[in-house]
Structure formats: C-alpha cells, structure tokens
Design goal:
alpha+beta, 7-stranded antiparallel beta sheet, 30 helices, 10% strand, extended
Length: 670
Amino acid sequence: MIPYILYTALILFACLMFYKLLLQKETFYNLNRFVLLACMLVAFTLPLLPIPQQFSLQKQKETAAIPSIKKTVAKESTAELKPLPVNEVLVNETKQQFNMDLVLQWIVYLYWFGVIVFALNFLMQAVILFYRAYTSEIIRDGKFRIVEITGDKAPCSFANSIFINPEKYEWETYNQILLHEKIHIEQKHTIDLLLAEIVLVFQWFNPFAWQWRKALESNLEFLTDNEMLQQGSVEKESYQFSLLKVAAPQFPLSLTTNYNQSLLKKRIIMMNSKKSNVNTTWKYFFLLPLLVLFACLFNQPAAQSQTLTSNIKNEGTKANTNTQKGDQTEGNWFATIKGNKVEMEFKNDENSHSTHTYDISEFSGLSKDKQGTFSLTREAGTMNFTGKFDGNSGMGTYKFVGNKNFAKEMAAQGITLADDTDLMVFFAVNIKTSYVKMLHKKGYKNVDKEQVIPLAALNVSEDYIDSIKDAGIGNIDIETLIPFKSLNIDKAFIEDIIKSGYKNVSPENLITLKSQNIDGKYINDYRSSAKTKKNENGEGDEDNIVAFKTLNIDKAYIDSFKKIGYNDLSNDDLIALKALNVTPEYVSQFEKAGYKNISSENLAALKSQNITADLVKEYKDLGFSDLDLNDIVGAKAVGATPTFIKAMREKGHNFKGIEKYIALKAVVGN
C-alpha cells in the first residue's frame, strides 16, 4: 500500500510541475481544466496498470531481485546460534526487523488516521453547506437558489446554491457577483472541487496535492472571469473594480467556489494578459510521454506479474511455509577455529551463503592437517563434511542429511517441515522436540514454524517465559515474546517499571518504554519534575514520558525555566518548547527588550517564525513603538518584514499601525 500511495504522490508532483512550467500561463482555461482533472484520475489509476514487459525499464532489475528475496530472508532466519548463548548477529537482525516493521506499521496507522480526519472534515463541510442552503432564506432564480447570508463573508457557490449577503453590495456589483456564480454553477465547477477534496483526503500528507487543489481553483476562477468578460453587458474595468470590493480574507468553506483575496492579483493579471496563440497547444502533447515514462519506470511488467502469479499457484503452501532458503543442503564450507568455537561459512554459489558458529565439541571425527571426513549431528539431521584443516583454517564440501523421524515428530507437534531445506534451518538453530513441547506446556498450543525459529534463535527458554509471567505479565502472547527477548525485557526491568507506578503495565507499554531506554529512574525523575496526570494504577502518561525521552527533556531543562519564573509549564508546553528549541536564553532576550511574562504559546509562535529580539528592534526603529508580540508574529508570518515596510513607505504607503502593512502584504502578495 505504501508504494502505491507514494507513487501516486510522485505522479501528482510531476504533473503539477509540468502544469506550472508549461501550461499555467496559457489562456486555454477549458483545456487546462480538462488536464487538471485528468491528471488527478491518472495519478490514482496509472500505478495499477501493468505494462508489456518489453516496454518496462525495470524488468531486468526485478527479475534479478526475485531469488534474492529468499536469500535475504534465509540469511536473517538462519543466523549463527548455538543451543545456549544467543548469537549477536541474529539478535541485531531481529531487532532491526522488529523496529522496521513497527515503524512501517505506525506509518500506516498514521496515514489512515489522517485519511479519517480529512474525510470527516470533508463530510462536515458538506453537511454545513447543505444545512445553510436549506435552512436559510432563499430566492429562486430559475434553476439557481440564492441563499441570503449575514456577516462579513465573501460570496460563494456550491452545487446550484449561491451564498451572498445582499446588504453588502451595490446593485451593479451584486448583479455581477450573481452572474459570476451562475457561470460556476452552469459549468459544474463544484464537481472539480469535490474531486480535488477527495484527492486531499487520500494525499493529505502531500504538499503538492494541496498545491494541485490551489492550481485547480485558480484555473476555475480564470475560466469564469474569461466567461464574464465575454458577456456584452460586463465591462472589464467595472468587473475588476467589483472584484476589489468583493475580495475578502475571510474565506468560505473549501468545497465552494469563492472570491479569494490571495487570487485577486493573479486574476486581474490573467484578465489583462494576451490570449494564447493556438500554435502553443503543442505543449499539452508532452504530458502523454511524461506519463508513459512513469509507467515504464515504475509499473510492474505484465509478463512478470503473470509469472509471479503462476509461481504462487504452483508452489502453494510451500511458498508460505518454506521461507528459509539461504542454507542449501550441500555446497562448500570455509571454517576458522577460534578457541573452542568453530566459525563456518556455507557457500553454494556467488550469491548464496550463510555463517554459523558451533562448539568444537559438537563435531565427530574432526582432525587437523589431514584430508578427511567429519560430521555434526543434531536432532534435525546430520551435516557430513569432507575437507582439510591447515592449522586453524579449513575448507571443503558438505552435505546435509535430514532426520525424517524428527520431521514426523514435528508434524505430530503441529509443525510441518516440507523438505531437507526446512530441516537444515531447524538444524542450524538447533531446535529440539523438547523445545516445542515446552512451548505447548506453557500454553502456546498453535505455534508454527515461523514462530519457533526466532524463539529458539533468541533463546526464549522456559525459565525466561516463567520469569516474565512471575513479574506480572501473565497474558503475554507468543508474538510478543520475540520483541521482548530482542529488546532484553526481563523480570528486573518489568519490576522496575511496576515500582515506578505502573501497576498494570501492558506488554505494549513495556516494549514502548524499553525501545526508548526508559527505566524506572527516568519515570520517577519525570514525575518529580513534570506535571503528571495519572490514574490510580500509575498509568496514563506514557505518551508524555516517551515524548520527554525522545526530545531529551530532563530535570535540568525544566528547572532552567523555573529559574526564570516559568513554574507552571504543562507537559504539552514543555514538549512544544523543546521541539522548537526554545531555551531560557531565548526568553531572556525578549525580557531585556521589555517583554515580560511571555506565555508559552507566544514563545512557541515567536520561535516557529524565527523571531528574535533584534527583529523586534528593527520594527521599533521603524516607529512602531507600542508593538504587541502577536502583531510581530502576524507580520512575520505574512512576510510584512521591515524591508517590505520600508519599500512600501518609499512608494507612499505611510501607515501608523503595523496591521495596515499586514493587510497590504496580503493583497499585493510577493
């Protein structure tokens, strides 16, 4: 799902850049409307279309990647481990795999959370519009419904309803507004905006999707303005003057066509621009090869899709249950003796190899400095070696013979081992029948092969399971035991967390805390310094604890604010300030400039706009002596900088209040 979403975002970005660079200034507004709508639909459908394999630019790369999947999985699954000590390589790989899976899972959760939020916002806007349209007073004008509203809101339209306050405008302006909105309705511009809003629901994280909606809305206004000027009863100067009267910064809902002050300058420019020559339509034809290029680069080849589907059908259960293919049953071996350990690398071809470490005492018949045979036997089978050790280094060939009786015993325990390759994985990890029986005895009756391998590799023993349950985690499932062991969550850690106030701590809480290296001491320090809200079981603040740890908010940071008078900062305040890197030194520079007792919200706003005391001084030097910090934040946010104010004064715009320059900046834009 994630690749599809990102591919869609990439297509939107490419089409937006194409539109902005080549089409935006053209006056073929109807054609631009078609392009904008078509690209939205193509962005969501193109990634789903397979292309002929001969046209794909990635076919060789993906063909080579198919077998490597098995090898990579095998390498992770059959890393070197012995019956007792845990091998560090596999532990690290398991940690990385767990962490990556957890990150991807949370990314998916976050994405769907955003989709739900924006979908609810979309529905809420629709409900509000229908409510206003059918509960307010209306005037019927043929198929149009003129809804009378109150207040200082800009006129707009939705479906066949026009929302306007008739008391605000002169008769000529009022008629021009109605004519403008009727064009929106007749050309069904609401459909365009609804489609754009649906795109935003699923691409809410994509800044280019928001820019796409803005471009679509701008083109609709250009199109409507052009239609207005085609009316014989409308003069260009009179219409543009009416736009200046109507434009307002209080925007209506985004589902409506509306008079947007920020678009005013562009609309007037486009109305006065020279009409595009028909010979420039060649630009539009370059969009098709751009989309074809994307399909060739990223779409899955059709032939490969059929091959993969065929493989899945043919292999069936074997493809799902036999994932550890890195250790082939015969090949070459290379070994080094280090003390009482033997490190062996098994290699079958240039791309298939794995490494394991064994106790030297496990081998039968191993001798140095002469050619010979020796073997290593475990419950899952026997590995027969032929070769020679020169000193502590050796090489030769090997062949693994699986123990069929062991496979039958595993089948009796509910675990299917399809062939010798599966048996060799169990051999490498040294999984015994007694280990599976132990898991059954502990209540894990339905354990499968994919679960047993990491459990045994991580040495999740009976004592470990008992210690976790003795610590109060009696409901731990087998899937949770793997991250527990990977993160080294033991009885001591659990008891430490419980003593810190978490009486009913859950496995999920423990994983979260341990992954952030949060222990009982940190929790106690956090609660002694920060303002906590917890229930009688000591729970409810783990999100803040994790946030504090992630942002490195410690007692020293909190005390540094208390020293300058900020004794009542909430946890949310501290998180916001730390995330923006607000320090006591930053606060002090404003206090020296005469601003005392600045609220945490204002501090966050100042820092987010990168406002310093020096910038405040620049505004004051321009004559704004009684400046409020909110005014400075507003000025910086819209770009009404000291440089801008100086430039406007040189052009004759001399205002006493900074708010006038803020309003001026909103109108003139860049």
